[in-house]
Amino acid sequence: METIFPSMDRHEFFRIVGTSIGAILLTNCAAGCGDKAGGDPTPDPNQKVDFTLRLSDKGNENLTVKGGYVVSNNVIVAQTKAGQFIAVSANCTHEGTQLIYRANDNQFYCPLHLSRFDPTGKVLYGPATQPLTQYIVESDTAAGTIRVHT
Ligand code: FES
User: Fold this and answer.
1) Most buried of 3, 46, 86, 145 (most Cβ within 10 A)?
2) Is pTM beyond 0.90 here?
């Protein structure tokens, strides 16, 4: 019989290698699919949100650019390429990963499992099935502020 290693035949070798690869894949899936993403996957529609962002603050300068966004108070606030301000809950409804805003698509995007949401929070692409919470945004250009509220 042909052997790969002097003390192991081919069937034994592939059995061990196959088991090891299976264990590695299972470990990676458990890590990626587990509850390690943090956050609360289900937005609480009764949660009151009301805060104001000052555009002159260093942390909010992305909002002065079309296509820019910031995350504040678990809300992602973005300025679309058309210059409209939009806001939704910042955590993906699948496993809670913090979303990003993609201005070119005008969508909120989850970098973990690739769910996508439209500007109102509606699911466009899973695995997420629940919508994001959409918030009202009022900009006051004279004061240089943006108010986000329920
Ligand atoms: S955490 Fe899985 S799609 Fe967002």
Assistant:
1) 86
2) no
